Records
---
Amino acid sequence: MNVVRNGVFRGIRLFQKTGSIGGGKGVFVHRGGSKDDLVTFPIGGRIMNGFKGDAKMFAGDLCEYRTDANGVNPKIYLLKTYLVESVSGTTLNIVRDGFKHIPFVGDKLGVAPEYIGKEMKSATIVAVSKGKVGSQDVWVCTTSEELTAKKGDVLVEADTDGTMAVKAINGVVDCDIEMFGVSATEEVDFDAVHNLYTPMRRGEMYISKMSPIPVCVLKENTSKVNGWFRVDY
């Protein structure tokens, strides 16, 4: 739910927004019998790295449920991933097909490191537009510097300290969620949208139907079934 903060207006104010929602994917593996699957955390938290504009997270996306030293005051960090179509100098083409995350100006992206949360080389996106590479729809991004990446690489978000923004994978997004406006990145931010969300624990998904997954995250897969991904924390 979005909370819109406005000044005093002694009348009726109407908000209207247009957009389109693509088709859904049955990403979760449905199993019979008794199961301990897709259970909620005891309390949700504020999404700290939302999008810089209208975008969505998809069912089966992964996230980090990060608590403090006492195991309370959780904050949510989304694993946003981007599939490279091609790179030439400071022009980065990211696959655009309606089932992948949207890049925005100001995003710091780079090829995922060998291990989750570790150092990575990144560049800041300074311009984004729609385009095509052959028959493939892409987001044409101009970056602040050249990225060493190739077709098929998976990009992730970098933190301000040059490490991967997500430090651990322990949560799952259970359904498509729409995120409108510029998301807050601080707890005290009166001009941005604050998204409060409770992710799920566990869950088993078809890898082919998930958002692109970097190798460092695939290493965390606990499923013993080929083509399935499980979060078991």
---
Amino acid sequence: MKRLGVRVLVSLAVFSFFAVPVLAAPATEEPQYRECDLIPADQYNDRIDCKTENANVALFDYVDTVIEYDKMRRAYGREPLLTDSQQEHLQSARVRAQNAKERSHKAKSFFGQVKKQKTEVGDCYVKERIGDIGQPRGGDDIQPCEKGEICEELAGDQIGNDDGECDTTGNPKEREVCVKVCESAMPDDDPYDPETAFDTEKGLEELEEVIDDATGEVKKAMARMQTYYTTRPPEQVDECDQFEFGLFPPWYALQASQVAKNVADAVFNSCSVACNQDAFGWNCEAACVAFAVIAGVLNGVDDAFSVIDGGNGSDQLDRVAKCNRQLNEKLVAQKGALDEANAMISELLVQVETLAKTMEARFLVMEDLLCTPHGQRECFPGGVERAASAPPVRESPPTEERATKRR
């Protein structure tokens, strides 16, 4: 646990958030998170009150976070999650949940959540008719009516002839009802069940935890949205240039909201079903009001998320189709440019090949010229023999010797 919960149908509670005008709620301090395990285990009313208040703390934080998320959506030009009236309903509803919790605690209504189930009554038997006008059968022993004995008829039920003798034969519609005698169940000195108390408290702890999880996922969605919009280029860009497939709210926020509302429904239903037992006092049902309001708030938020997600899904498909068309157009344009470049390269290769052939022809002419007597290359006719019989070339004297002769 990091932080900090008259029968009402949850579906009616959800509808009331968006269909009934907001009434001024009585001034109530915000719930404060408490360490409930410090309260003695047998103080059931106080412990359940404490854990319900912790669930209310989580609920207050969740509603605040959802409203802040909705304000951010509007600031970035996204479609709103809630109307202004719906925001007011959520804020008012969470106050009603806290007020209902306070009333239940003062009336000790939470005790009803941990009462033992009503015990089975003792065995029942059909009563023998006593003093059957001189015809005793079985000795008028006031024991269960046995075979051969006359059983006592339940008088005044307008079935049969009300002669005091219970006739169970013949036409089923005419069979008379016999008097039954049931033993009373033994009284229980301790009407409260520690195991029931443990289960009730665990349900409230889980409710607090899943509301906290839902709050955390909405905060993640806010951070993601803020990052997405603050990192966009200052100039106007096409939506396909910076397209995000995971629009807001993301799937994990939707999943968390669904889990929270399902757990809240379970807590409310458990309370309502338990209070229907005859053994519980009339005030037990009042303890369910707080849970019904919490469930209503969570159902309302989940409905809002579901509506937005449906719109997002349609927008996603539209954007994917649009961006795919744009991408295809760009690819076609790039392919045209690439084809033009390939044509230019092919033409350039032809020119290079022509130039290479021209250069090769000129090199062959130069080689032929070098093989003439004027070219002094050994390849001209008789060039090898003449080169061998030619007188040696006189070497030039060193630089200093030439300088001395000049002086």
